[in-house]
Specification:
477 residues, alpha/beta, Rossmann fold, nine-stranded mixed beta sheet, 19 helices, 36% helix, binds adenosine-5'-diphosphate, binds alpha-D-glucopyranose
Length: 477
């Protein structure tokens, strides 16, 4: 089976959030099962500089008004890549989602290039049977397939976060090389605008999202205007959980840690606590439970509930470390909390991959109080690293954390702490339960060990995607 994955992020070259991590692991995991999976991404400078370029093909003299476009054939370790080279759009530093003036046109260009590869193939005659797009940046790909001429590859769309619709004015239809006939509820029209993600979800042959619970939630109240469409299409929608890339997230080998450890040597985790505390200006208190969060500061991540509990945590002898960036108001509030509680609360505002690894290896508790969470990776990394996740029971958090209760403690299945209501009081109550268990080291270690032993590998998700592909009748590929 020949499959082309289309996405806007790829760890370690370009990563804004979990999408980058998933794109680094999923295609390789499906390849390991024998399918010829390749990826198409923009030729970002960081990516281009890091991979070996093997060939190039011109595909348009002026793609979406962004000038000449070529597809470069490249190879990242264990993963064949195609890079859309279009210097006006992609040859610039910073976030892949910056430069709003051409945001729509440049990801339309990516989607069009994917459809082109699906129709025409590459210079060596490789032509994917399935185009698999991820999130709104790839959303128009099924539209270019549906409204274009020539052979039609099958299409799959995966929702990593439905809160980002990729919504642009209807007046851009021509700029995006879409025919007038596409602007209907059955096509790319979304509440009077052009909806990139909507187009993909309407027109792709199969849909998936990154957890079974989120797959249900987005058909109910949390679909950001796409609920009805997803209900219509629920027969072709699957929820497939993400995994953990053990090559990157393994405390026995992680180059970022102060000390390596594993399930059999938990005591070797201790230097990571003290090193982390020292590096962030927290008191080197071996008895204080360390609560940490590694997160984009976005209202949907629910970090305001943590802010409501800062004084409560400190009063009970805990420490809090925040690693994140995003909403300026949230950044400022965490900064102020750290100033109010020197040595007990620290706020690192920024993005730091190494510090994130150290946080998982040092923290006793990783907080993920999200209002919505399609899958979430930090609660999985927490478990692999022996930090216990405290999560709101939503989306993938609900599917990957077993909350402690008398029953789950008795049968040994508990892996974390959960709460339901999205308010500071409910989180505070869960914090109290967490602190109570922390005072019982034997029970604590049991929960910790269960998490460390959990298998969140990529093989099983990769099989689920392959299975999804095999449900599509392939058209004469
Ligand atoms: P999302 O994709 O919604 O941001 P996920 O939990 O799926 O949420 O993935 C977040 C990823 O980004 C994880 O790999 C996490 O470690 C990383 N991350 C988030 N914020 C930071 C930060 N400030 N510094 C380093 N890594 C971060
Ligand atoms: C999105 C979601 C997150 C998920 C990630 C990878 O960014 O917000 O929950 O883990 O994609 O699928």
């Amino acid at each position: 089976m020949d499959i082309l994955l289309v996405a806007s992020e790829l760890f370690p070259y370009v990563k804004v959030g979990g999408l980058g991590d998933v794109m680094a692991a999923l295609p390789r995991a499906i390849r390991a099962l024998g399918a010829d999976v390749r990826m198409l991404l923009p030729a970002y400078p960081a990516l281009r500089a890091a991979v070996e370029i093997q060939g190039e093909t011109a595909i348009s003299p002026d793609l979406m008004g962004g000038g000449p476009a070529r597809i470069l054939k490249a190879e990242a370790p264990g993963l064949p890549l195609y890079l859309l080279e279009q210097p006006t759009f992609f040859d610039r530093p910073g976030s892949p989602y910056g430069h709003p003036e051409d945001l729509a046109r440049r990801f339309a260009a990516l989607a069009w290039a994917a459809a082109h590869l699906g129709r025409v193939g590459d210079a060596e005659g490789w032509r994917p049977q399935i185009l698999h797009g991820h999130d709104w940046p790839a959303g128009l790909m099924p539209a270019y397939v549906a409204y274009g001429d020539g052979p039609r590859p099958a299409t799959v769309m995966t929702i990593h976060n439905i809160a980002f619709p990729g919504r642009f004015p209807a007046s851009m239809l021509d700029d995006l090389w879409l025919p007038q006939s596409a602007f209907t509820p059955d096509g790319v029209e979304f509440q009077g605008d052009i909806g990139f993600l909507k187009a993909g979800l309407k027109l792709a042959d199969r849909l998936s999202t990154v957890s079974p619970t989120y797959a249900r939630e987005i058909q109910l109240a949390d679909g950001h205007g796409l609920e009805d469409l997803l209900v219509q299409r629920h027969g072709v929608l699957r929820g497939i959980l993400n995994g953990v890339d053990r090559k990157v997230w393994n405390p026995a080998k992680d180059p970022h840690l102060f000390s390596h450890y594993d399930l059999k040597h938990p005591a070797r985790r201790a230097p990571n606590r003290s090193g982390f505390q020292r590096s962030l200006g927290l008191q080197e208190d071996p008895h204080a439970p360390i609560f940490a969060s590694v997160s984009r500061l976005d209202p949907l991540k629910g970090l305001d509930l943590v802010l409501d509990n800062v004084d409560h945590l400190v009063l009970h002898g805990a420490q809090l470390a925040l690693l994140g960036q995003g909403e300026p108001l949230l950044e400022a509030a965490f900064h102020q909390a750290a100033q109010r509680h020197p040595g007990r609360v620290s706020a690192f505002i920024g993005y730091d991959e190494a510090l994130a690894h150290r946080a998982f290896a040092a923290a006793d508790v990783i907080l993920a109080p999200s209002r919505q969470e399609p899958c979430g990776l930090t609660q999985l990394y927490a478990q692999a690293y022996g930090a216990i996740p405290l999560v709101r029971r939503t989306g993938g958090l609900a599917d990957t954390v077993v909350g402690t209760s008398p029953e789950t403690l008795a049968d040994g299945t508990a892996t974390g702490f959960t709460f339901d209501e999205a308010n500071g009081w409910a989180l505070g109550e869960a914090i109290n339960r967490t602190l109570a268990l922390f005072r019982d080291p034997i029970a604590w270690r049991q929960v910790q060990r269960r998490g460390m032993a959990a298998d969140f590998g990529w093989e099983s998700p990769a099989r689920a995607y392959l299975d999804l592909y095999t449900t599509i009748p392939l058209r004469g590929a």
